[in-house]
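Can anyone check this?
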Amino acid sequence: MNIGQAAAASGVSAKMIRYYESILLLPAAGRRDSGYRDYGEEDVHRLSFVRRARDLGFSIEQIRSLLALWTDTGRSNADVRAIARTHLKDMEEQARKLEAMIGTLKTLIGSCETGKRSACPIIEELGDHKPAPAAPVKARRRAA
C-alpha cells in the first residue's frame, strides 16, 4: 500500500510516517518500481502502536523502548510496566504543576477587579510586581 493508504489505515499522517522513518521508529519502506514507498500490514500495525503510544503521551524514546519490547517474545512484563510507571509518575507530576497553575490563575482572575483601572494583579504577578519598563521612544527623522 502507498503512504496515503498506510496513513489512513493507521491513523498516522503521511508527514509523521516520513518522520518516524527518519528517526528509525519505522523501518524504511520498500520502494515500488515507480519509486513510491510500499507499506505492508506489519508497518500499519507498528504505526498504530506508535500512534496509540503517542496518544498516551509516551516520549519517542519510551516508544522506541516499547517497540523493542513488543517485538521481543522473551520480554518480561516487568520491563514494560517499568516504562509505563515512569511515564505515569511524569504525567502525575505534570498534572500537579497544571493544578497549581490553574489555582494561581483562578486566584488572580478572582482578584482582578473589573473596570478601567490600571492596577491589575495578573499583570503585576507576571511582571514580578515591578512596573513595566518605559516603551522605547522612536527617534524622529528631521525633514531636510
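Reply from J.R.: I decoded it. The helical segments are 3-10, 14-22, 41-55, 60-70, 77-111, 121-126.
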